## 1
Amino acid sequence: MTRSIRPTAGNVLIDAKDNNPETFLYLPDIAKKRDMPQEGIVFAIGGSPMNKKGIVFKPDFKVGDNVLFRKFSGLWVEFAGKKLIQIKQKDVEAVIG
């Protein structure tokens, strides 16, 4: 039996990249101490959240996209040998690419 994982509505699973010192962005020390976004690849997306008026918000990213997300958000889980972080869709700050 194959196991699968699907985040609940409004959530997304990210295959987070480790902080690699060989980066193209220079970050001064003061920036490293703040709540800086992290980078990762979208592994799975839950259903689209709906506001109180019934408007559905579809994410601006898809599975496989490289994204930036807030550093101190989410829940770390291990699935299929991968370390994933489950975060709210609203915590995805940008799509890289």
## 2
Amino acid sequence: MINPEKAQQIVKHLIDKMFEYANLDVKYEDLLGRKDDWYAQYTMTQEQHNAWREYSVKYIKKEKKVPMKYAEQAFAWFNLSYGLKVEQPESPELDNIN
């Protein structure tokens, strides 16, 4: 188990990286103290999310010194708590369904 300061450092780093991968000029410090659903106010593409996920899993594995499976699970929980919405592709218009 890692100490709380190290855990907070990991959270800060992953949030900063998430915004970097999403090409947004937002930092962890900008979010401090916010009680709203800030994570739902920004989006990233599926490609950006995949790249951020790949980076984050490797980072968690290295920093926490855990197996890959645990790092993937930790990322899934992190993403559920803090991850940005992923833009859904536009579905084709269904004008003439009949």
